[in-house]
Amino acid sequence: MDFSLTEEQKMLRTMVREFAEKEFEPIAAQIDEEARFPAESIKRMAELGLMGIPFPEKYGGSGGGTIQFTIATEEISRVCASTGVIYLVTAGLAGKPIYQFGNEEQRQRFVVPIAKGEKLACFALTEANAGSDVAALETSATRRNGGYVLNGIKLFITNGAEADITLVFATIDKSLRHRGITAFVVEKGTPGFSVGKLEHKLGIRASSTAELVFDDCFVPEANRLGDEGIGFRIALEAIDSSRISIAAQAVGIAQGAFDKALAYAKERQQFGQPIINFQAIQWMLADMATQIDAARLLVYRAAYLEDKGLPFIKEASMAKVFAPEVAMFVTTKAIQIYGGYGYVKDYPLERYFRDARITGIYEGTDEMQRMTIARSLIREG
Protein backbone atom coordinates (compact mmCIF):
# COMPACT_ATOMS: atom_id res chain seq x y z
CA MET A 1 0.00 0.00 0.00
CA ASP A 2 1.58 3.26 -1.16
CA PHE A 3 0.16 6.62 -0.05
CA SER A 4 2.78 8.73 -1.81
CA LEU A 5 2.39 10.71 -5.01
CA THR A 6 4.65 10.00 -7.95
CA GLU A 7 7.32 12.55 -8.82
CA GLU A 8 5.25 13.61 -11.82
CA GLN A 9 2.20 14.15 -9.62
CA LYS A 10 4.26 16.13 -7.09
CA MET A 11 5.59 18.33 -9.89
CA LEU A 12 2.03 18.92 -11.12
CA ARG A 13 0.88 19.89 -7.63
CA THR A 14 3.75 22.36 -7.22
CA MET A 15 3.20 23.84 -10.67
CA VAL A 16 -0.55 24.32 -10.23
CA ARG A 17 -0.15 25.68 -6.70
CA GLU A 18 2.40 28.27 -7.75
CA PHE A 19 0.37 29.20 -10.82
CA ALA A 20 -2.87 29.54 -8.84
CA GLU A 21 -1.23 31.65 -6.15
CA LYS A 22 0.20 33.96 -8.80
CA GLU A 23 -2.75 34.18 -11.19
CA PHE A 24 -5.91 33.53 -9.19
CA GLU A 25 -5.32 34.54 -5.59
CA PRO A 26 -4.71 38.27 -6.24
CA ILE A 27 -8.09 38.66 -7.97
CA ALA A 28 -10.18 36.07 -6.10
CA ALA A 29 -11.85 38.54 -3.73
CA GLN A 30 -12.55 41.08 -6.48
CA ILE A 31 -14.14 38.69 -8.94
CA ASP A 32 -16.22 37.25 -6.10
CA GLU A 33 -17.43 40.72 -5.10
CA GLU A 34 -18.24 41.66 -8.70
CA ALA A 35 -19.57 38.23 -9.66
CA ARG A 36 -17.26 38.52 -12.66
CA PHE A 37 -16.21 35.59 -14.80
CA PRO A 38 -12.37 35.36 -14.81
CA ALA A 39 -11.97 35.05 -18.57
CA GLU A 40 -8.29 36.01 -18.71
CA SER A 41 -7.38 33.66 -15.88
CA ILE A 42 -9.16 30.78 -17.60
CA LYS A 43 -7.27 31.57 -20.79
CA ARG A 44 -3.92 31.44 -18.98
CA MET A 45 -4.92 28.19 -17.29
CA ALA A 46 -5.66 26.71 -20.70
CA GLU A 47 -2.28 27.89 -22.01
CA LEU A 48 -0.66 25.94 -19.18
CA GLY A 49 -2.39 22.80 -20.45
CA LEU A 50 -4.60 22.20 -17.41
CA MET A 51 -7.80 21.82 -19.43
CA GLY A 52 -6.30 18.88 -21.27
CA ILE A 53 -5.34 16.78 -18.25
CA PRO A 54 -8.21 14.22 -18.55
CA PHE A 55 -7.85 13.70 -22.31
CA PRO A 56 -5.40 11.69 -24.45
CA GLU A 57 -2.71 13.50 -26.41
CA LYS A 58 -4.51 12.49 -29.61
CA TYR A 59 -7.29 14.90 -28.67
CA GLY A 60 -5.15 17.78 -27.46
CA GLY A 61 -4.71 16.62 -23.89
CA SER A 62 -1.87 15.35 -21.75
CA GLY A 63 -3.23 11.89 -20.97
CA GLY A 64 -3.43 12.40 -17.23
CA GLY A 65 -5.73 10.43 -15.01
CA THR A 66 -8.27 11.17 -12.30
CA ILE A 67 -5.58 11.65 -9.66
CA GLN A 68 -3.86 14.35 -11.72
CA PHE A 69 -7.20 16.05 -12.38
CA THR A 70 -8.01 15.82 -8.67
CA ILE A 71 -4.69 17.43 -7.73
CA ALA A 72 -5.25 20.31 -10.14
CA THR A 73 -8.83 20.85 -8.95
CA GLU A 74 -7.76 20.94 -5.30
CA GLU A 75 -4.90 23.37 -5.87
CA ILE A 76 -7.01 25.77 -7.94
CA SER A 77 -9.86 25.65 -5.41
CA ARG A 78 -7.40 26.25 -2.58
CA VAL A 79 -7.17 29.89 -3.68
CA CYS A 80 -10.36 30.39 -5.75
CA ALA A 81 -13.27 27.97 -5.60
CA SER A 82 -15.07 29.79 -8.43
CA THR A 83 -12.21 29.11 -10.81
CA GLY A 84 -12.07 25.56 -9.50
CA VAL A 85 -15.66 24.80 -10.45
CA ILE A 86 -15.33 26.47 -13.87
CA TYR A 87 -12.38 24.17 -14.46
CA LEU A 88 -13.83 20.91 -13.18
CA VAL A 89 -17.12 21.35 -15.04
CA THR A 90 -15.50 22.16 -18.39
CA ALA A 91 -12.79 19.51 -18.42
CA GLY A 92 -14.52 16.97 -16.18
CA LEU A 93 -18.29 16.93 -15.80
CA ALA A 94 -19.04 18.07 -19.38
CA GLY A 95 -15.85 17.23 -21.25
CA LYS A 96 -15.16 13.68 -20.07
CA PRO A 97 -18.52 12.16 -21.09
CA ILE A 98 -18.26 13.69 -24.55
CA TYR A 99 -14.90 11.95 -24.90
CA GLN A 100 -16.10 8.68 -23.36
CA PHE A 101 -19.35 8.36 -25.31
CA GLY A 102 -18.63 10.43 -28.40
CA ASN A 103 -17.67 9.09 -31.80
CA GLU A 104 -14.48 10.15 -33.54
CA GLU A 105 -16.08 13.07 -35.34
CA GLN A 106 -17.59 14.36 -32.08
CA ARG A 107 -14.29 14.04 -30.28
CA GLN A 108 -12.56 16.09 -32.94
CA ARG A 109 -15.30 18.74 -33.00
CA PHE A 110 -15.87 19.08 -29.27
CA VAL A 111 -13.20 17.39 -27.16
CA VAL A 112 -10.18 18.85 -28.92
CA PRO A 113 -11.20 22.51 -28.41
CA ILE A 114 -12.11 21.76 -24.77
CA ALA A 115 -8.76 20.10 -24.15
CA LYS A 116 -6.91 22.98 -25.78
CA GLY A 117 -8.87 25.52 -23.75
CA GLU A 118 -10.36 27.08 -26.85
CA LYS A 119 -13.93 26.42 -25.72
CA LEU A 120 -15.72 26.19 -22.39
CA ALA A 121 -18.37 23.58 -21.65
CA CYS A 122 -21.31 23.05 -19.34
CA PHE A 123 -23.53 20.16 -18.26
CA ALA A 124 -27.27 20.83 -18.52
CA LEU A 125 -29.27 18.28 -16.57
CA THR A 126 -31.09 19.95 -13.64
CA GLU A 127 -34.64 21.26 -14.03
CA ALA A 128 -37.24 22.74 -11.70
CA ASN A 129 -38.76 19.32 -11.04
CA ALA A 130 -35.72 17.18 -11.79
CA GLY A 131 -32.90 17.66 -9.33
CA SER A 132 -32.07 14.52 -7.39
CA ASP A 133 -34.80 12.74 -9.37
CA VAL A 134 -33.05 12.87 -12.73
CA ALA A 135 -35.61 10.57 -14.41
CA ALA A 136 -38.30 13.23 -13.94
CA LEU A 137 -36.78 15.69 -16.40
CA GLU A 138 -39.22 17.29 -18.81
CA THR A 139 -37.08 18.87 -21.52
CA SER A 140 -38.25 17.12 -24.67
CA ALA A 141 -36.45 15.96 -27.80
CA THR A 142 -38.79 15.43 -30.74
CA ARG A 143 -37.40 13.70 -33.81
CA ARG A 144 -37.64 15.84 -36.96
CA ASN A 145 -35.90 15.97 -40.37
CA GLY A 146 -32.53 14.46 -39.58
CA GLY A 147 -32.35 15.68 -36.03
CA TYR A 148 -34.28 16.66 -32.93
CA VAL A 149 -36.16 19.70 -31.71
CA LEU A 150 -35.48 20.50 -28.06
CA ASN A 151 -37.93 22.32 -25.81
CA GLY A 152 -37.50 22.97 -22.12
CA ILE A 153 -35.66 24.92 -19.43
CA LYS A 154 -32.58 23.90 -17.47
CA LEU A 155 -31.68 25.45 -14.12
CA PHE A 156 -28.54 26.04 -12.03
CA ILE A 157 -26.15 25.37 -14.90
CA THR A 158 -22.53 26.13 -13.99
CA ASN A 159 -20.71 27.95 -16.83
CA GLY A 160 -24.09 28.31 -18.54
CA ALA A 161 -23.60 31.94 -19.51
CA GLU A 162 -20.14 31.48 -21.03
CA ALA A 163 -20.10 27.92 -22.35
CA ASP A 164 -19.47 27.34 -26.05
CA ILE A 165 -20.50 23.68 -25.75
CA THR A 166 -23.48 22.45 -23.75
CA LEU A 167 -24.08 18.80 -22.95
CA VAL A 168 -27.86 18.74 -22.55
CA PHE A 169 -30.17 15.92 -21.53
CA ALA A 170 -33.71 15.61 -22.87
CA THR A 171 -36.32 12.88 -23.11
CA ILE A 172 -37.67 11.39 -26.32
CA ASP A 173 -40.68 10.10 -24.35
CA LYS A 174 -41.45 11.22 -20.80
CA SER A 175 -43.48 8.08 -20.11
CA LEU A 176 -40.28 6.06 -20.47
CA ARG A 177 -38.74 7.88 -17.48
CA HIS A 178 -34.98 7.20 -17.40
CA ARG A 179 -35.12 4.97 -20.50
CA GLY A 180 -36.16 7.93 -22.63
CA ILE A 181 -33.36 10.28 -21.63
CA THR A 182 -30.98 11.12 -24.48
CA ALA A 183 -27.86 13.30 -24.53
CA PHE A 184 -27.09 16.05 -27.08
CA VAL A 185 -24.27 18.48 -27.65
CA VAL A 186 -25.63 21.97 -28.36
CA GLU A 187 -23.34 24.75 -29.51
CA LYS A 188 -23.59 28.40 -28.55
CA GLY A 189 -25.49 30.39 -31.14
CA THR A 190 -27.79 27.56 -32.15
CA PRO A 191 -31.21 29.08 -33.01
CA GLY A 192 -33.73 28.51 -30.23
CA PHE A 193 -31.04 28.16 -27.56
CA SER A 194 -30.59 31.07 -25.16
CA VAL A 195 -29.36 31.98 -21.69
CA GLY A 196 -32.07 33.08 -19.28
CA LYS A 197 -31.81 34.18 -15.67
CA LEU A 198 -28.43 34.35 -13.93
CA GLU A 199 -28.54 33.36 -10.26
CA HIS A 200 -27.30 35.74 -7.55
CA LYS A 201 -25.51 33.33 -5.22
CA LEU A 202 -24.14 32.99 -1.72
CA GLY A 203 -20.77 31.68 -2.90
CA ILE A 204 -18.65 30.74 -5.93
CA ARG A 205 -19.92 34.02 -7.31
CA ALA A 206 -17.37 34.40 -10.10
CA SER A 207 -18.72 31.34 -11.87
CA SER A 208 -22.04 31.79 -13.64
CA THR A 209 -25.05 29.73 -12.62
CA ALA A 210 -27.58 30.14 -15.39
CA GLU A 211 -30.98 29.19 -16.68
CA LEU A 212 -30.80 27.72 -20.20
CA VAL A 213 -33.81 27.94 -22.49
CA PHE A 214 -34.52 25.63 -25.42
CA ASP A 215 -37.37 26.92 -27.59
CA ASP A 216 -37.84 24.82 -30.73
CA CYS A 217 -34.07 24.39 -30.82
CA PHE A 218 -33.08 22.11 -33.71
CA VAL A 219 -30.10 19.83 -33.05
CA PRO A 220 -28.80 17.63 -35.88
CA GLU A 221 -28.56 13.90 -35.32
CA ALA A 222 -24.77 14.23 -35.59
CA ASN A 223 -24.89 16.06 -32.25
CA ARG A 224 -26.62 13.25 -30.40
CA LEU A 225 -24.21 11.65 -27.95
CA GLY A 226 -24.58 7.90 -28.05
CA ASP A 227 -27.83 6.10 -28.82
CA GLU A 228 -31.31 7.22 -27.92
CA GLY A 229 -32.19 6.33 -24.36
CA ILE A 230 -28.68 6.04 -22.89
CA GLY A 231 -28.57 9.63 -21.67
CA PHE A 232 -29.42 8.54 -18.14
CA ARG A 233 -26.37 6.28 -18.08
CA ILE A 234 -24.18 9.04 -19.53
CA ALA A 235 -25.40 11.52 -16.93
CA LEU A 236 -24.94 9.19 -13.97
CA GLU A 237 -21.47 8.07 -15.02
CA ALA A 238 -20.42 11.70 -15.50
CA ILE A 239 -21.79 12.70 -12.11
CA ASP A 240 -20.27 9.69 -10.34
CA SER A 241 -16.84 10.72 -11.62
CA SER A 242 -17.38 14.41 -11.00
CA ARG A 243 -18.24 13.77 -7.35
CA ILE A 244 -14.55 13.07 -6.85
CA SER A 245 -13.77 16.50 -8.32
CA ILE A 246 -16.30 18.26 -6.09
CA ALA A 247 -14.84 16.48 -3.07
CA ALA A 248 -11.41 17.66 -4.22
CA GLN A 249 -12.77 21.19 -4.49
CA ALA A 250 -14.03 20.93 -0.90
CA VAL A 251 -10.62 19.72 0.26
CA GLY A 252 -9.00 22.63 -1.55
CA ILE A 253 -11.33 25.13 0.13
CA ALA A 254 -10.62 23.56 3.53
CA GLN A 255 -6.87 23.56 2.93
CA GLY A 256 -6.90 27.18 1.83
CA ALA A 257 -8.84 28.25 4.93
CA PHE A 258 -6.56 26.20 7.17
CA ASP A 259 -3.42 27.75 5.67
CA LYS A 260 -4.80 31.24 6.31
CA ALA A 261 -5.83 30.39 9.87
CA LEU A 262 -2.47 28.81 10.73
CA ALA A 263 -0.53 31.81 9.41
CA TYR A 264 -2.83 34.23 11.23
CA ALA A 265 -2.52 32.32 14.53
CA LYS A 266 1.25 32.67 14.34
CA GLU A 267 1.05 36.43 13.76
CA ARG A 268 -1.91 37.53 15.90
CA GLN A 269 -0.81 38.76 19.34
CA GLN A 270 -2.99 38.62 22.44
CA PHE A 271 -1.94 38.77 26.06
CA GLY A 272 1.62 39.44 24.94
CA GLN A 273 2.08 36.36 22.76
CA PRO A 274 0.94 34.78 19.49
CA ILE A 275 -2.45 33.13 19.86
CA ILE A 276 -1.05 29.88 18.49
CA ASN A 277 0.58 29.41 21.90
CA PHE A 278 -2.86 28.90 23.45
CA GLN A 279 -4.08 25.34 23.70
CA ALA A 280 -7.59 26.23 22.53
CA ILE A 281 -6.16 27.42 19.20
CA GLN A 282 -3.77 24.49 18.92
CA TRP A 283 -6.57 22.00 19.37
CA MET A 284 -8.71 23.69 16.74
CA LEU A 285 -5.82 23.58 14.28
CA ALA A 286 -5.10 19.94 15.13
CA ASP A 287 -8.71 18.93 14.49
CA MET A 288 -8.79 20.92 11.26
CA ALA A 289 -5.57 19.35 9.94
CA THR A 290 -6.70 15.84 10.87
CA GLN A 291 -10.04 16.16 9.12
CA ILE A 292 -8.48 17.66 5.99
CA ASP A 293 -6.04 14.77 5.79
CA ALA A 294 -8.83 12.23 6.23
CA ALA A 295 -10.93 13.92 3.52
CA ARG A 296 -8.01 14.04 1.11
CA LEU A 297 -7.29 10.35 1.60
CA LEU A 298 -10.91 9.50 0.81
CA VAL A 299 -10.73 11.62 -2.34
CA TYR A 300 -7.47 10.11 -3.50
CA ARG A 301 -8.74 6.58 -2.87
CA ALA A 302 -11.77 7.18 -5.08
CA ALA A 303 -9.56 8.77 -7.76
CA TYR A 304 -7.15 5.83 -7.61
CA LEU A 305 -9.97 3.33 -8.05
CA GLU A 306 -11.36 5.18 -11.07
CA ASP A 307 -7.92 5.34 -12.64
CA LYS A 308 -7.54 1.58 -12.16
CA GLY A 309 -10.93 0.89 -13.74
CA LEU A 310 -12.24 -0.54 -10.47
CA PRO A 311 -15.65 0.12 -8.87
CA PHE A 312 -15.53 3.51 -7.18
CA ILE A 313 -19.12 4.78 -6.80
CA LYS A 314 -19.39 4.05 -3.08
CA GLU A 315 -15.96 5.51 -2.42
CA ALA A 316 -16.74 8.62 -4.48
CA SER A 317 -19.92 9.14 -2.47
CA MET A 318 -18.02 8.71 0.78
CA ALA A 319 -15.54 11.37 -0.32
CA LYS A 320 -18.34 13.60 -1.58
CA VAL A 321 -20.33 13.49 1.67
CA PHE A 322 -17.32 13.81 3.98
CA ALA A 323 -15.16 16.44 2.28
CA PRO A 324 -17.89 19.15 2.17
CA GLU A 325 -18.60 18.58 5.86
CA VAL A 326 -14.90 19.00 6.53
CA ALA A 327 -14.86 22.19 4.45
CA MET A 328 -17.69 23.64 6.53
CA PHE A 329 -16.03 22.58 9.78
CA VAL A 330 -12.64 23.99 8.83
CA THR A 331 -13.92 27.29 7.45
CA THR A 332 -16.06 27.77 10.57
CA LYS A 333 -13.10 27.15 12.87
CA ALA A 334 -10.87 29.35 10.71
CA ILE A 335 -13.30 32.23 11.13
CA GLN A 336 -13.29 31.57 14.89
CA ILE A 337 -9.50 31.81 14.96
CA TYR A 338 -9.63 35.11 13.08
CA GLY A 339 -12.28 36.39 15.47
CA GLY A 340 -14.04 39.53 14.28
CA TYR A 341 -11.65 39.86 11.35
CA GLY A 342 -12.89 36.55 10.00
CA TYR A 343 -16.37 37.99 9.61
CA VAL A 344 -15.46 40.96 7.44
CA LYS A 345 -14.73 41.06 3.73
CA ASP A 346 -11.28 42.60 4.19
CA TYR A 347 -10.10 39.07 4.95
CA PRO A 348 -10.67 35.92 2.85
CA LEU A 349 -12.23 33.61 5.42
CA GLU A 350 -15.83 34.71 4.88
CA ARG A 351 -15.43 33.92 1.17
CA TYR A 352 -14.05 30.45 1.91
CA PHE A 353 -16.98 29.87 4.26
CA ARG A 354 -19.54 30.91 1.63
CA ASP A 355 -17.85 28.90 -1.11
CA ALA A 356 -17.75 25.75 1.02
CA ARG A 357 -21.51 25.48 1.46
CA ILE A 358 -22.39 24.56 -2.12
CA THR A 359 -20.06 21.55 -2.16
CA GLY A 360 -22.57 19.60 -0.08
CA ILE A 361 -25.37 20.32 -2.56
CA TYR A 362 -24.28 20.15 -6.18
CA GLU A 363 -23.28 16.92 -7.92
CA GLY A 364 -25.62 15.14 -5.53
CA THR A 365 -26.72 16.29 -2.09
CA ASP A 366 -25.32 14.82 1.12
CA GLU A 367 -28.58 12.89 1.51
CA MET A 368 -28.23 11.29 -1.92
CA GLN A 369 -24.64 10.30 -1.16
CA ARG A 370 -25.72 8.58 2.04
CA MET A 371 -28.39 6.69 0.11
CA THR A 372 -25.78 5.54 -2.41
CA ILE A 373 -23.40 4.43 0.33
CA ALA A 374 -26.15 2.58 2.20
CA ARG A 375 -27.33 0.75 -0.91
CA SER A 376 -23.77 -0.32 -1.66
CA LEU A 377 -23.36 -1.63 1.87
CA ILE A 378 -26.61 -3.59 1.62
CA ARG A 379 -25.53 -5.17 -1.68
CA GLU A 380 -22.11 -6.02 -0.32
CA GLY A 381 -23.61 -7.53 2.83
What can be said about the biggest beta sheet? 4 strands, mixed
Strand content: 15-25%
Sequence of strands across the biggest β-sheet: 1-4-5-8
- State the low-pLDDT regions, or none: none
Distance between the termini: 25 Å
What would the average pLDDT be, to the nearest integer? 96
Helix content: 40-55%
Order of helices and strands: HHHHHHEEEEEEEEHEEHHHH
Globular, elongated, flat, extended or rod-shaped: what is the shape? globular
Task: Count the E strands.
Answer: 10
Structural class: alpha+beta
How many helix segments? 11
Gyration radius, to the nearest Å? Answer: 21 Å
Fold and architecture overview:
A four-stranded mixed β-sheet has the order 1-4-5-8. The chain starts with 6 loop residues before the first helix and ends with a helix. It has helices spanning 7-23, 25-34, 39-47, 66-77, 81-101, 104-115, 231-267, 279-307, 313-338, 349-357, 366-380; strands spanning 121-124, 140-144, 147-158, 165-171, 181-187, 193-198, 209-220, 224-225, 269-270, 273-274. Helix 4 (66-77) packs antiparallel against helix 5, helix 8 (279-307) runs antiparallel to helix 9 and helix 9 packs antiparallel against helix 10 (349-357). With 381 residues, the chain is of the alpha+beta class.
